[in-house]
Structures are given as structure tokens and as C-alpha cells.
Hints:
Helices cover 46% and strands 15% of the residues.
Amino acid sequence: MSANIKKIMAAIDYIESHLHEKLDLETVAKAVHYSKYHLHRMFSDTAGLTIQTYIQRRRLTEAAKLLVLSGRPILDIALSAGYESQQSFTDIFKIMYKKSPNQYRKEEEFYPLQLRYILNENPAGLEEKNWKNKIVFAEKEDIPKWIELVHLIIDGFPHLDEQQYRKQLQEYIGNKQALILKSTDTAIGIMAFNETEGSIDFFGVHPQYPKIEIGKAFCELALYELASSPQISVTTFREGDKADTGYRKMWGSLGFSEAELLVEFGYPTQRFILQKPLDRPCNHVLQKEKSEDRKHE
């Protein structure tokens, strides 16, 4: 295990054990005996968000759980989450969850904003020149790895119902619409692609790997080998949504352009579109694999 990963994991352990106490970068850095400036940089580079953002999202998630699963007063929950008043808690809760704590409690449906980060102690590298060829159709035995990654990147998918998601995932796998890039024991990148709609219904990259580079490889396969139309689409956070940890920026970096505003599961989103260039050759590697599988059915 690298010294950097070890320090980050120690920081996460400390945060998780002290969520109901006063926490800031300086406190966490002192607890793990590391410079706050170096810890800030390492944590942000590895986790994709700052320590303070991680703390805030974890506290709100635990507060949301208490709102649904306990009868504790909202003020009590607000104070245990580190807020000085019920109003300050309500303000940030509405910004991140798009509804008030009281409304969230009445709906009786818990979904996390941020689950605990469990990092890979020895992440496999992408040094091989042909790593893109290791993006394959997911199989049923890949589901545990897939779900582990979903838990890690839940920040990008507000209102995700895991039970329903698992059922849909099996359908994607059965229809050869689920792609995965994996190492021995870890899912590095995953994508669920709806060929009929030409939409990326789910995409995520392990935070310890280059999101843009892997995202580009997955999108190329979806656009040139799976999509039947000259474009693919994805929905993501709207501009200015403070719950966005960088997904909107990622899709823009991959060449997607803004389209219409939507509301999905009661959450405000926006559709993004990627057009297929006319001069791009296609190898149809995945389509060959799919055809071979159909021959053996």
C-alpha cells in the first residue's frame, strides 16, 4: 500500500469515527500526523472532492438516514450533524437533497448523498497500451464488483434505489448493454447503455483512476459500436447544482453539449448529447462478441 493511500484511508477512518464532532481539515490532518496542505491535495486528487465536502456529504447522508429511520426531532438531528441551528441545517439539506428535511421525512425513502469511501489499497495501473481492449460486456459474476463501485460513486446518482437498480442491472447484463473495465478484484469503470434510446443510463469510474481518459474510452465504444443512432445522450446535474461533484464538467470535457432541462425522479437534471463524427472508423469489437454469444444461445 502506498504511503499516500494509507494516509487517506487513515483520514477517512478518523472522519467516520468523529462525524458527530467538530471536524475540519486541520483537525483531521493533526489526527493522522500529516501536513494539512499535503493531505488536502492528496485527498482531493484521490477522492475527487475535498475533505470538507466529504465531511459535509457524509453528515447529511447520516442525517437523512435518521430522518427516515428514527423519530428524533429535526433540531436534534441538525445538532448531531454539526449544525448550529435547525435553519442552517435545513438550508444546506434543501440545496443538496432538493427538499426540506421535513418533506424528506414524510416521504419515508432514504437514499444516500455520500457513502463511506473504501479505497483500493493496491490499485492496478493502466500502464498496458491495450487496456482499452479490456472493456468488455459484464457478466453476472461481475455484479458484486459493479455494486461495490456504485457505492463508491453514489454521489453522482441522487435518488438511486439500490434494489431496483440491481434488478435493472441484471437486465442490462442479459441484453449485453453493460460494459465493465476491471482488475482482479475491482471494477475500474462501468457503463449501462440503452441501445434503443441511445442513452448512457449509468456510468462511473473508480476515484483512484483517471475519469476523463476512461470515460472517453467507454463513450467511444458506446458511440461507435453500440449506438444505432448518430448520437448518444446522458443526463446529469444542472448548472450550479452544489450537489454535483464534477460530473457535469466531466461530460463537457468528453465533448457532450447541453440539451434540454429535465426532472427525473423529482430531481432537476439536464440532458447532454454527443454527436458521432462522420470520418471515424469503427472496429465493431463488441458487436463481434455479441454476435458470437448469440450463435451459442
